[in-house]
């Protein structure tokens, strides 16, 4: 089947043609394990997990390599580790473990390889030296800086006006820069909380890498000098991904780093930007454990995310999650005990059209309506709703229904007691009959402590 993907680099949706169909390669920017992942962090995890599944379906599991890094080297991480008197690895290990537990619950497959920044320092130093030797970087005051004017095509990915790029570069203004747009590849470590390694390019002062060089080094190490797909959030296009392109292409002399660049849109919560100050900042684990009075199964979060096309902004609401829960409950009930067939072409065509999940979900509704539950089950499995978990959501829904039934029973019993107290025996009998129709048997008596009338109940045997 043909897969067509929207490419940020070309601003067009084109047929995906891998460099080598026997070795399809995708890199996605992963978490900075400084703090627990919020629901916005879950979007690229789910989106590119779905693409990973689709690529494996088309090209074969053995022929797709998915690399998603862990950024465990960051100034905030460094400072916190120093303050706590622990190593960077000790600090980040716990955060990474919680990240994995959360995204496992979302039905995300583990990537083929999950490189850590701290384990690729030598590759970063090699890139620095290659760029200096090629005239694309220079050393100044124990820093290695990329020379943006040395690359005529800089800005080709983000396609931002020059003034916008300069404004972005000014985040790190320094007098030793030759150009205000130049960015750091390597920087000295002088403070006690800053980890340091032997520096490249003849610099005597120990140092550490800049942020952008990390992903260039890890993608090169595990996928090669050029590869097929690079993904991440829309907020990474500039400067992070733009700088990755500059570093990698200039180091190796290629025109491109990745042939296809894909970016997911932003996420809001109940119509507002997620912010701790607004009280709407929510982590993945908080949703799983309980948010807005309910623990939300991972499948519900996954479907809620996939109902909106990945390139569009998404408004995360309780109502949307409730609708997803109801939808999944129906699909799971229909698919239980059914042998999965092949995935219907209509579903594959929708997913192959730049991951058109809204259309794919509409096709799933159609399969359910037509009674093609074998096709529905196969489609659910392809989209990350695995057979091993098919009964879990139904069980949770049944438990919630039981709770609602219990509340309804207690309300009816209270109404009957009130009717009896008011000597409205006709209403009392009507309620008794309604409960009997629900399979509930009543037993009237008196509260031994107060002597007031009371009623207990049990399910009729």
Automatic annotation (TrEMBL):
A motif ('HIGH' region) lies at residues 31-41. Residues 16-324 form the tRNA synthetases class I catalytic domain. One of its GO terms (biological process) is cysteinyl-tRNA aminoacylation. Binds 1 zinc ion per subunit. InterPro entries: Cys-tRNA-ligase, Cys-tRNA/MSH_ligase, CysS_C, Rossmann-like_a/b/a_fold, tRNA-synt_1_cat_dom, tRNAsynth_Ia_anticodon-bd. ATP binds at residue 276. Keywords: Aminoacyl-tRNA synthetase, ATP-binding, Cytoplasm, Ligase, Metal-binding, Nucleotide-binding, Protein biosynthesis, Zinc. Its cofactor is Zn(2+). Transmembrane segments: none annotated. The keyword Signal does not apply. GO terms for cellular component: cytosol. Zn(2+) binds at residues 29, 215, 240, 244. A motif ('KMSKS' region) lies at residues 273-277. Its main location: cytoplasm. It catalyses: tRNA(Cys) + L-cysteine + ATP = L-cysteinyl-tRNA(Cys) + AMP + diphosphate. It is found in: Cytoplasm. Its EC number is 6.1.1.16. GO terms for molecular function: ATP binding; cysteine-tRNA ligase activity; zinc ion binding. Residues 407-447 form the Cysteinyl-tRNA ligase anticodon binding domain. PANTHER family: CYSTEINE--TRNA LIGASE, CYTOPLASMIC (PTHR10890:SF3), CYSTEINYL-TRNA SYNTHETASE (PTHR10890). Monomer. Belongs to the class-I aminoacyl-tRNA synthetase family. NCBIfam families: cysS (TIGR00435). This is Cysteine--tRNA ligase. It comes from Phreatobacter oligotrophus. The gene is cysS.
């Amino acid at each position: 089947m043909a897969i067509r993907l929207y490419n940020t680099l070309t601003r067009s949706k084109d047929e995906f043609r891998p460099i080598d169909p026997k070795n399809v390669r995708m890199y996605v920017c992963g978490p900075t394990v400084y703090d627990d992942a919020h629901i916005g962090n879950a979007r690229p995890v789910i989106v590119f997990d779905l693409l990973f599944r689709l690529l494996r379906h088309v090209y074969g599991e053995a022929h797709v390599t998915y690399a998603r890094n862990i950024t465990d080297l960051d100034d905030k991480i460094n400072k916190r580790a120093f303050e706590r008197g622990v190593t960077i690895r000790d600090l980040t290990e716990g955060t990474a473990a919680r990240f994995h537990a959360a995204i496992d619950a979302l039905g995300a497959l583990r990537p083929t390889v999950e490189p850590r920044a701290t384990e690729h320092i030598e590759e970063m130093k090699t890139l620095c030296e290659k760029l200096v030797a090629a005239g694309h970087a220079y050393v100044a005051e124990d820093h290695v800086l990329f020379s943006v004017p040395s690359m005529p095509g800089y800005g080709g990915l983000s396609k931002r006006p020059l003034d916008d790029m300069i404004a972005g570069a000014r985040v790190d203004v320094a007098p030793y820069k030759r150009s205000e747009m130049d960015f750091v590849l390597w920087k000295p470590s002088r403070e006690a909380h800053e980890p340091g390694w032997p520096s490249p390019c003849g610099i005597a002062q120990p140092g550490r890498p800049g942020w952008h060089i990390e992903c260039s080094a890890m993608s090169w190490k595990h996928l090669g000098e050029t590869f097929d797909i690079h993904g991440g959030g829309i907020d990474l296009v500039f400067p992070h991904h733009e700088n990755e392109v500059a570093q990698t292409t200039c180091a190796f002399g290629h025109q491109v780093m990745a042939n296809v660049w894909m970016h997911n849109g932003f996420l809001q919560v109940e119509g507002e930007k997620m912010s701790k100050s607004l009280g709407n900042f929510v982590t993945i684990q908080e949703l799983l454990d309980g948010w807005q009075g309910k623990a939300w199964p991972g499948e519900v979060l996954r479907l809620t995310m996939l109902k909106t096309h990945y390139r569009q902004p998404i408004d995360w609401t309780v109502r949307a999650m409730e609708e997803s829960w109801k939808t999944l409950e129906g699909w799971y009930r229909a698919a239980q005990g059914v042998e999965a067939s092949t995935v219907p072409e209509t579903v594959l065509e929708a997913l192959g059209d730049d991951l058109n999940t809204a259309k794919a979900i509409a096709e799933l509704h159609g399969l359910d309506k037509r009674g093609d539950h074998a096709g529905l089950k196969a489609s659910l499995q392809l989209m990350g709703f695995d057979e091993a978990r098919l009964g879990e959501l139904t069980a949770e829904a049944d438990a919630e229904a039981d709770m609602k039934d219990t509340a309804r029973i207690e309300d009816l019993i209270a109404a009957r007691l009130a009717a009896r107290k008011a000597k409205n025996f006709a209403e009392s009998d009507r309620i008794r009959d309604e409960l009997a129709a629900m399979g509930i048997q009543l037993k009237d008596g008196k509260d031994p402590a107060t002597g007031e009338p009371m009623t207990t109940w049990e399910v009729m045997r």
